[in-house]
Write a structure and sequence with these properties.
Layout (H helix, E strand, L loop, with lengths): L8 H12 L3 H7 L2 H7 L5 H12 L15 H16 L1
Helix pairs in contact: 1-2, 4-5
Length: 88
Amino acid sequence: MLDRHGIDHETADEIGDAISAGEFERAFDLVTEPMLEAFCVAGTPETVAERTEKLRESADSVVFASPLGPDIEAAIDLLGAVVDRQRR
């Protein structure tokens, strides 16, 4: 999966080691923009809708999980609106 997305194995290992050691700030600092693009969906509701639709082209399902944003209730409401729009 890392090769498919052009993610550096050494950096990924460093992130895993930092998480295992409970050094979450260090792990977060090591995450790169390409990693975010490859492994998460974030942005405006429109961006999330577009990226989710693209994922559905090659996946059986999409699961949204934590972290959802700084305001969890607002994030859930926004995500619900995106999912409702896609069902139509």
